[in-house]
Amino acid sequence: MIVEIHKSSPSMSGTLQYNESKVLGGVASVICEHGIGSTGLTEIYRVFEERERMSLREAHHLSFQMSVNPGPDDTIGEDRIPEFVAELMVGLGYGDQPWVVFRHEDTGRIHYHVVSTRVDADGRKIRDFYEKRACDRIVLSLEGKYGFVKGGAPKAVEATEADFSVFRPGEGDVVGMIRACVRHSLSYRFTTGKQFAEVLRCHGVIVQEGLNKKDLKAHLSFRGLGQDGRPCTTSVSGAKMGFDVMEAIRSRMEQSVGADVSREKSALRNDLSEALGKCGDLPSLVRELKGRGIDITIYRDREGTPCGATLIDHRNACVFKGSEVSRTLGTALLNLAAGEKAADEEAETMVTEAKETTSFNSGVSEALAMMLDVAMTAGSGRKGKSLEDPDLKKKKKRKR
User: Fold this and answer.
1) Model pTM?
2) Which among 245, 250, 257 has a CA at the least distance from the CA of 319?
3) 223 and 194, same structural domain?
């Protein structure tokens, strides 16, 4: 048995997104929870986000994630994992905290991730001094009771989990994580370069287009996003992906155009219809659909009027325009978005606005539009740099 407490972060979003991506990818599931009341992703997000907002002070180690890896010779069955985790969490001081156990089967061996928060019900941070030492002592004391032998570091699990399909700032090789996100995004069904860019953004990576200074040929570059949704890495050239990304995008679009997605479209139509019937505003609709594994992007014109929508179904790895799913439902979605006030901060944080996905009607050449319809950063120029890019500002200052 290997039990390891992983590196913490000042926000729950990265930890939850990692496990959510595995669930949506069909290689993970929720087997139990404590203090949440539901094993649905929507409720799990709500409880942890609410607890995070209660924090009385800024905490650098707010999230808690622990992996439980039974060995091949251990006799503990999955039916006893919840009991074992509960006893361990009590011993570590998390007995009254909300926590959830995800079952992962993406490494060739079944293992579990326990997710919780270090903010208690009063908004105070739980003491985590020498937490790993305490964990080792508790696990060792429970060997006989649960039928396992405490072991060393899980090398196979570490090697596999380094290949994240969602970008996680500060954890692992940046180029390797971006490459994994690009490859996973290419497995989706999309028919435009803009749709591919939206899928990639959902994975925590933005893509920019530019011109190679040597041969003046179009090229792509990528940047990872931080917890605040802003770029947190330098640009990584498409040449470092190990394959021709533009050719892969073009090939995938050609395959997707003739694909039969009637079943996937019908399922998405039903989900959207049910969600619109339940939700009276855009933020609640976004949360409802996110719990079903669906992301929305709303596009607005310069006056702020909604003019289009994209729906990304992560369960079936498909991307559709709102009107493709249903003209009636697509119109209802835009009408709901039109009813939101422009100053609604919650909607702005959860839905990509035209200020971020600007200029897909900006005269980009048809050849480039096939491969990447729009750069994903506001005001992005031909060299893939935003005029508001802090790195660019620094360079300008140096020149002066």
Assistant:
1) 0.47
2) 257
3) yes
Phi, psi of 328, deg, nearest 5: -65, -50
CB 209 within 8 A of CB 220: yes
CA angle 213, 236, 295 (to 5 degrees): 120
Q: Would you say 124 and 114 are in contact if contact means Cβ atoms under 8 Å apart? A: no
Q: What is the rounded CA–CA span in Å between residue 172 and residue 391?
A: 22
Residue 345: pLDDT over 50? no
Q: Please tell me which of 12-16, 63-67, 172-176, 312-316 the model is most confident about, judged by mean pLDDT.
A: 63-67
Classify residue 378 as exposed, middle or buried by CB count within 10 Å of its CB (0-12, 13-18, 19+): middle
pLDDT of residue 57: 65
Whether 102 is covered by a domain: the verdict is yes
Q: Report yes or no on 130 lying in a domain.
A: yes
Averaged pLDDT, 175-204 = 87
CA distance 258 to 263: 14
Mean pLDDT in residue range 35-60: 86
Tens-digit pLDDT profile for residues 109-164: 789 999 999 999 988 888 887 888 899 999 999 999 999 988 743 443 333 333 33
Burial of 338-363, coded b for 16+ CB within 10 Å and e otherwise, reads: eebeeeeeebeebbbbbebbbebeee
Q: Measured in whole angstroms, how far is the alpha carbon of residue 14 from the centre of its chain?
A: 7
174-185 and 193-202 helices, crossing angle to 10° = 130
Q: Domain of residue 271: give its range.
A: 262-350
Structurally, how many domains does the chain consist of? 3
Contact 271, 323 (CB under 8 A): no
- Please name which of 220, 178, 221 lies closest in space to residue 203, comparing C-alpha atoms: 178
Q: What is the pLDDT of residue 108?
A: 67
Q: Give the other-Cβ count within 10 Å of 15's Cβ.
A: 23
